[in-house]
Design goal:
7 helices, six-stranded antiparallel sheet, 2 domains, alpha+beta, four-stranded antiparallel sheet, single chain
Length: 235
């Protein structure tokens, strides 16, 4: 996995133990195996120190500040906010699509935000403690991870899906084994799932060529229809 190659072997062992302490099982063991992999040898220690700063902030419940950048097409970095520091309240960390992500919220906006850790520079825990908000006191990072599609954020909604038995395993793999699945009619099932409504979610639905369908709410179903119509018009 490419993320593991960004860490030196000498640093990865210490970091893997900290990740296991922070995240517990099973994700802690998953990330521990990633950062401890023998392929982590390319000498780029920047991401190690960034992840180390993130885990320190999470464990000590302090705010985290960092610079955030995009890669220029011609090479080099373009810092967002004209190089001003971001300051956030960390909620957790996710490994997805060969990248580590910080899950957090800003004091100003309160909504959950995600930042790719390999695009952070000069990350450091601040002295100030995180802002305690009731809505995040029991934040479930694993559940949030299941709601996301390709790390695209969107409005969180409860969506009812219907599908034939052949797609039931794909649905449970995506949303978790514990989601309640009910029989809709002979050979067809339904499940209520929490998702972040986004183009990535709609793209996932297209993989099943109409086999997995949105039946409620109507507003999400209409957005999906508009998404499909837009695709066909551009084809």
């Amino acid at each position: 996995m490419s993320a593991s190659k960004l860490l030196t072997q000498a640093k990865s062992e210490t970091l893997s133990e900290k990740l296991a302490e922070l995240l517990g099982k099973p994700q802690g063991e998953e990330l521990k195996s990633i950062v401890g992999a023998p392929t982590a040898k390319n000498g780029n220690e920047r991401i190690y120190y960034t992840i180390d700063a993130v885990t320190d902030a999470l464990l000590s419940k302090r705010k985290l500040s960092f610079l955030y950048f995009d890669r220029r097409p011609q090479g080099g970095k373009q810092y967002r906010k004209n190089g001003e520091r971001y300051e956030v309240n960390p909620l957790g960390m996710i490994y997805s699509g060969d990248n580590f992500y910080l899950v957090c919220f800003h004091d100003k906006y309160k909504d959950v935000a995600c930042y790719r850790i390999d695009k952070m520079d000069d990350a450091r825990p601040e002295k100030e403690r995180i802002t305690e908000l009731e809505q995040y006191r029991s934040f479930d990072i694993a559940a949030y991870r299941n709601e996301l599609f390709s790390m695209y954020a969107g409005e969180r909604m409860e969506v009812r899906l219907t599908f034939p038995s052949e797609f039931s395993s794909a649905v449970t793999e995506r949303f978790g084994e514990d989601i309640p699945i009910v029989t809709e009619k002979a050979g067809e099932y339904a499940a209520e799932v929490a998702v972040r409504v986004s183009k990535a979610f709609f793209s996932w639905l297209t993989l099943f060529e109409g086999g997995v369908r949105i039946v409620a709410p109507e507003s999400v179903k209409n957005k999906y229809i508009a998404f499909l119509r837009n695709l066909t018009e551009k084809a």
